[in-house]
Amino acid sequence: MHPQQNPQLFHFLQQIMSISDINDLFRSIIAFAKEALALDRSTIMLLSDDKQRLTICDTIGFPSTLINTFTLTDGQGLSTYVVKTKEAAMVFDLSSETRFEVPPIALEENLHSAVSVPMMIEQEPFGVLIGHTHDQRIFSEDEIQLYQFIGNISAIAIKNTQHVQAIKQARDEWQLTFDAVPDMIVILDDERKIIRANKAMIDRVGVPATEIIGRRCHEIIHGTDSPPSYCPFTLLLEDEGIHRAEIAEKKLCGKFAVTVAPLFDLNGKRKGGVHFVRDVTERERIEGELREKKRFLNTIIETEPECVKLLNRDGSLSFMNQAGLDMLDAKAFDQVKGLSIFTLVKPEYREKFQQITVETFTGKTGGMEFELVGLKGRSLWLETRLAPLRDKDNDISAALAITRDITERKKAEAKLAEHHIHLEELVAKRTAELTTAALRLQKELAERLSLEKTVNEIEHRECQRIGRDLHDGMGQLLTGMAFKIGALESTLKKSQSPDIAVVSDLASLVEQAKDSLRRLISGIDLSDYNGAGLAASLEQFVARTQAMFTIPCLLKVSRRLTTCDGHTVVNLIRIVQEAVTNAVKHGEPERIEISAVREKEQIVVTVWDNGKGIGREAWLSSTGKGLKIMRHRANMIDAKLVVRQDSRGGTVMRCSIPVHPEGKG
Prior knowledge:
Layout: H1 7-18, H2 22-37, E1 41-47, E2 53-60, E3 69-71, H3 78-85, E4 89-91, H4 104-108, E5 113-121, E6 124-133, H5 141-180, E7 184-188, E8 194-197, H6 199-205, H7 209-212, H8 217-221, H9 232-239, E9 243-249, E10 254-264, E11 270-279, H10 281-303, E12 307-311, E13 317-320, H11 322-328, H12 347-360, E14 366-373, E15 379-390, E16 396-405, H13 407-495, H14 500-524, H15 534-549, E17 553-557, H16 566-587, E18 592-599, E19 602-609, H17 616-621, H18 627-636, E20 640-645, E21 651-658
Helix pairs in contact: 1-5, 2-5, 13-14, 15-16, 16-18
């Protein structure tokens, strides 16, 4: 098939050979193929370099989401089939095709027939053209040949376009690189005319590129009619060698390092040269500042009151400031240059000093205090710190040591040590005296506590005796009186005597006296609480309190409550009794709440009433001693007592007793 025999094909060939954009080329190919073969769908695919994948580059008719890359797998798709066979193929009925698996989208799009050809270059597939129709159709041999011709010339056009784009990209990348170089670059011919200049050069001279190209270098750079005598390009023209120079150029306002190198053509003939120009103005400024800083640093080191020195691995001195020379009693550095400082360190410190110096050359830092003997035999105490000094390659070149004279400090420390020893002796003596006094006080306190406990026990026994005497004596008398009055009351009732009312009043007064006696005995005798345990004792107390005062009294006892000894229980009940009595007398409460709970390492007994609240003065005045008695009892059992107004109203008494390791509070 010859393109000139088909005007449309000839026009298509001219068109695709003139398209430079690859995507426009893809669209033109599939559009012409669709029109030439009357296709409903037209698609182009390119084969990967390793011949393992096809990439859908463009399609007409199918959704754009179909554009992707897929791996060639035997038995899947018409495009894979023609790549594997390297021959054109068509399908009359996609739904009944058996040579390969038809993609589902073809059937979903209601397509029935298809034709595909490999796009060949030098007998190898480059890509695939594939077309689909909705109607069932048999493509003629001429149509397939036309389709194959379109595919082959399209492959060549695509390959050419890819090459052109690669060349253009390489050119653009070279230009970008050329312009991205921060140094100024100028390419000259043998007549010193500028052939090309990068962006850095154009920006620096401030002349548009169109006005630079073709003009001589010295006209643009130096503003002269002839090159200066120091121009390195003149030397290049003489020997075709590479030359360098540093030039101060007023026109460009700076100092520059210039390197020129020759350029040769393919035959080895020189055709010009390239100028590399670097602005070193800032470098010169920085170097000047560094020189000034070096002078400044040297001044500091030489006037530094502490010794600054550089040591080699063997301890030999490579530098020492004036302060260090004064410590060694040396007049000049030449007197100690190369001298090993190890020989001046006293023997008992020499090994450690050597070790620290060697470790410094491994990158470590260290320090120590030591004694040194100077050149004139003067002994000094010194403190030194060593650190590695690194060169420009980050290698350790020396050990930097900063040393100060601490001789006076050591003398002061020695005197301080003497005073410290004397002070320790005084402290030891005073401590012994205080220990003796503390033991004596502890003994006295123990005797006092024992005496208080004995007094408390005697008080308890005496209360028990008084209670029994009242019960056995006064109680029996009142009981006898009640019996006699009862008998008299019965006799008077029989005789209907008018004195019966008086006798009845007497009987009532006797009963009131008996109740008062029972309450008095209950308040005096706490023998029922001794040995009953805190929880049981509180329950008994609450029951008696409610019966005595006819006020609701609530009790809350923790299950984790630790067992207390009888002495502690009796004193706690006495404290609670005092709190309740004062609340009833002064607070006029409607309810009293008593609790005993375990809080961490202590037992807390609380009495709260909802009365009007009583102040500290009322507690102090109650029963003569009030709060003092409660605090005394609390101290006897090592408890802490707090009485205060409560935020809910009324008064709260809180008594906390520590729980001892043996489990008794």
